[in-house]
Amino acid sequence: MLIDEELTPINCVSKSVSDPNLARLEFIKIYEIMAPISNDLLVKNYSNFQSLAVFKEFNDPFDQSMLFAGLGKFIQIYRHEDRYRNMVIRLNTILDLFVTSVIREIEIRLKQEDFKEARKLISALDNLNLDIGDIEVDSLEALLEFFLDRYVNSYSFLSSKDTVDRVLKRATYKARGVVKGHYLDFVEVDNIFNQVASLLNSQLNEIDRIFDTNADEVPIVLKLMETFLGNYFIGGLVEKLINRAKHIDGLDEPVDLEPEPEDEKIDPPHVNIMNENSLYFQCVPFLHHKLLTTFENLNYPQSSMDSTDEATKMDYYPVIIGFINFYYEPHLVEFSDQLPKQCHQSLVHLIDTWELNKVENEKMLEQEILKFVDDSSEAQTNHTFDIFSSFTNIFRLKGAKKTEKEEIENETKLTKFAAKLQILTTNVQNIKSLVSMDLTVLILQHVKNSYDLLLGLTKNSATSEIKASIYKVCQDIFIDMLSTLIDRHIKSGFQEALTRLKEYNPAELEVNVDYKVEPLTNFIELVNVGDLILQMINIFYNEELVKNEIVKTKPQKSRDFLSSNQCEKTISKLEMMLDTYVADGLDISIGVIMNEVNLCILRSQVNEGTYNLVNMEQMGIKNGQPSVYVKQTVTILESHFKMLSESIDKSILDIFKEEIGERFIATFIKLLTKKLNISTIGAIQFITDINYLYDFFVKYKIKQTVQYLVAFKEISQLFLIECDDKKKCKDLGKLVIDLGRDNGIFSPEEVYSFVSRRSDWVSIKRSVDKIMYGFGPDDCTIV
């Protein structure tokens, strides 16, 4: 109010005076104006107050509201008088009538779309927003109730049973996402939310036109949104949908549904491995997502929080999110509690389905191969045979002269052999697919889907408790996923691979040699798959859990087993398990590789004549090259050393190579002392072979084996010595003693046993023995 403005009943009480000397004078003026009005209105003419002259002078609702507001403040001077209580009661009654009449007038103006006049009437009600305890009339609350009553009738479709039936429909076919004969119609949900958005935008637009960005519209908008969400949408339709979904999940599976026709199959949106068997798990996250996006994209009024030029705009969405979280919280909590169990069940189903498909594919492949066997009856009875344990029985084809009938039978047996050999080859090749990267990718994607659902629930979450609870659920899901993957897939896959590796026996396969042991090659590929899976899991852990701050971690340098969280301990469990399987596989592989080496020696027909050459023409055939069995042995070992060097840790590989070298030396010594006879001419070839082996083991730095071969290089010189007289025989004996004493590897007795493989040993043995032992057998007499 301006200082020089004339005092009237509608403005006098609102005038403020800062000069104490003028206060008494101003009070007298106000009293002279308001006392007669309060006396006429609240004492004398209470029952017929509409006829008072003051209302004829101030007949505009806005002016009248100013008068009532001033009157409410003025009568506070009578607070300690007996008449005050009656005055307050009468004023409250008059205000009730006034507010009711103004709201009725607002309704009329809105029907006429006279928003300017409606806005003026609302301002009149705003004038009555008095902070006086005895004045009980709440004009703002009355205005809120008016707008709610105006809009709630348009929400009736949300409470209709037909709306629920439109969303959760009966299925015609059994398809993905169909649960107990029902499915969630995501398109219909979109339609309903679009209808809701259109309706709310229309109402918000009307409110905006009425209030014209005035701050008074803020409580109206918020009250409307809260009432709609709490009573009609989340507390109404959404709750009915979720309860109905849970009810359907608990029904029995219908038996009359036929599979969906191939030409009509579609991949339903928002359905994945985790929720395809539960409408509840389809509903809760999808409805939450629709709530967030729908209310985020509403056309809220551009409400100003004050009337200054730099007025702050009201941001409705965070407040609305608070309403959504408050009313949806029970569903979020229940969903996050149920999700780990649902996730585990779907993971188990996924792995079991993969394992079942693998077994079925192997059986189908066996049956397809066995179709080509002539004896169909035997094929039918033996299609489930144990391929490895029964394999030896099908190679016994050798025998005496056969009749024509026997020849025909052998043709059939050979056909069976070829079929079973193909099955064996297939099983060996399948070692590398016993653990699946594709399955792991599916599982990680499944967990990622679950995380997206859970973390989507925390978007703009109002409570830190819910967020902490959901983060804990995410950790539990990761740990359960990894434990399930280990126990139900990786462990069984590697155990099956080790079994096949153990049962592989190359000596039973009369086929051309391959310089790589097929099961070991495939086992190493399986190890590589295991390493890649471990890397994928580490990447997933860092990207999804660490970066999103779902788990708290210490820096890598200061982290140990005790300070690691449970997720990291489970990853370490997988890492240690893979290391154990690698060690076990390599231990088995050493035996398998040495079997392959022995088979190579057998196929090369190494015998007494290999080095027992009688002339240089036979040496010419060799042309200075190492023997076939030596070259093939080196090729076998080198191929596996190279393969393993790219696949396993160097420290493990070094142990592996040392063990291979040790076993090879044992095999070579056995071969030398049991089979070989070496002539002085053949010694040249023997030395060539020793040097070839020496160069190979030096190349791969297998120190212990190199030391053995150094000793063999020295011993091999003993085979070159011509012993055509006794002196040379004595010299040979002395060399045997010296080498036995000085080589540091073999004892004199062992050197003696090697030298005894000379082709002329029978003729020189007596002379050598006499040098070594001081006498020969002929020097002994029986007394």
Automatic annotation (TrEMBL):
Exocyst complex component Sec10-like alpha-helical bundle domain span: 189-767
Per the record, the GO terms for biological process are: exocytosis; Golgi to plasma membrane transport
Lineage, top-rank taxon, reads Eukaryota
Look up the record and report any one GO term of the cellular component aspect.
exocyst
One Pfam family name from the record?
Answer: Sec10_HB
Instruction: Report the protein name in the record.
Output: Exocyst complex component Sec10-like alpha-helical bundle domain-containing protein
